[in-house]
What does this fold into?
Amino acid sequence: MNSEVKKSAFLSGILLVAFAATAEEALVRVNLADGGVRTERVALASVSPAQVRFTYPKERITDDAVSIDVVPDFMTAKKGDDGYWIDARGAYGRFEHESGVYENDRAGWMPIFGLKRGETLWYGQVMGWRCDYHFCAEAKDGRYEAFPRFMVKALRAYYPVYQDIVVDFRRLDGAAADYVGYAKAYRKYQFANAGIRMARDRAKTNPVTDYLLESFVIRISQHCRKQVLKDRTLRMTRANEQPLLVHMPFLICQDYAQQLHDAGVDKATFLSAGWTSGGYDGRYPDMFPVEPAIGGEAGFKAFAERCRDLGFQMSAEVDYTEMYGPADRFNLDLACRYANGQFPDGGFWPGGLAYNLCTKKALDLGWCQTDFARLRDVIGPGPLFFDVMSAIEPRRCGHPAHKVTSDEMGAVYSRLFELAQGAMGGAASECGFDLGIRHLDYVNYLWHEIGFWKSNRYKGFLSGVFPVWELVYHGVVFYTSDRWLQNHTYGNEDRSNGAFDFGWGVYDRKEDPEKALKIVEFGGRPILYTHTFGDIPSIVKAWREYKPVRHLQKEEMTGHREVAAGVFLTAYGDGSYTVCNYNRSSAIFDGNAIPALGYVLFNPDGTRKAFAFDSENGLCEGVTRLLCRVNEVKGGIMPRSRPVEDP
Ligand SMILES: [Zn+2]
It folds into this structure.
């Protein structure tokens, strides 16, 4: 063999290897009704050098399928590998276990999930079945898989399979192959495809958004509502509904707003919940008349006017996902149904047994439009808050007269947000599900993952939570990062009196400095639910904590990393960054002391401010605890830091 032939054989060998490397395959596991599993291997189509596409035609989904797992070879790892699996919210697990399971049944916050192994991170973006899958991370005998599980049987309970399963997988390498690169890739996709804009840009023409940039949200948790009964079978009617418990009538709320104002809260967006007919969760989908027991329409109007006089913004909560027996609008023909005619479980709340209202019918009947216009007349502009909608995969409806797929229902929710933005100047909802994000101004909290991690719900299989959702949407939509952080200055809720009901929380006022720091580290804004004057000092404390960093709401979050054990840097588009220290001793970062249980805000002009936790004042400017050892440690762009003892 001469050298030319050798060279040619060598090249063809390379080509073969190169071709094999791009011909990726996925293991498809069809989980069957009898408990068995059928597997097949499906080739992934090459879209670009760093992107492949998985497609599973709907015709191929057999009748016996309960769910379908899609596991490309590159979404697997072994115990001991360097890296982690990661879900959409940023919950992640390192490859440290022989076995374990993490299954998120609300996977579609953002339709992405990933796996980092060594210098490469692959992530999937679910393009078809976007609302109908769980995210799973599993380890068996030290072998890890991260994959979407498409819920075939659950969907077929409502209607036939109507679309192909399509997942795009993209590869990130080198410096981009981490959770920040993963978030930035999706952020870029959303800016290009989802019509989202920075809040600061929307604020130029929208005073409601502009006010949100300066304020935080205080929710009157429930002006009034009925007691939740222990008997959870009763479908209430007007004849047997429970008496209203009145907590915060509008006239009292006027005093409440005045006291908050006088105590130093100068910018707040009030969210009135339970103003509706029959109180909170009482007679939905009836919103009007404004509940007479708390002052009726005239009282609501006067409360809104008082808020405006004090410089506050006013808003209110509505709900078009539930239907209760006592409602004038109650009509079982408008409830979501399974294909077999039965009703899905809607839970049991103050209004009794709840049915899932087909929200599309509420839109088609013009209820929402009428309600929004009337509410605007009563309380004026403010971001209208929709209970539930961004907290769930959009509800399916299999009613033969008004079948709605989850994708179509997502479009209905998004349309309601858009209508609210038109009528009220803004829209808000409960959590971080991003299908209608284009028309949302804020969400109350994302979900519970940080709390799950803190309570070790997954026995160590969940290693922590990265601020992935935050890296995508900071500067676009206002948020609090977790339910665990709600009411963070109140301390722990005390249910030792045996209360089984919700919303009347009594708190011990023993604060956790970690919560205050997590709000800063993750770039969120505090959110306070209140129903008592006793909360005012705690709300004032949260406001004082928030004001020094609220200007960062105008910026993109551009980076996040752990710079030393328990010390986290979060960077913003204007050049600002915060460094938060969760240790009980101070740390040195870039020559600056970061107080124990505190943080330093580094401004673009080179100035900085240090804050430390104090049980009386919360996270406050604490110069006395600041160590100034400037230039003690030199480093590169992001120098290393080390913990030091407090003096
Ligand atoms: Zn329907």
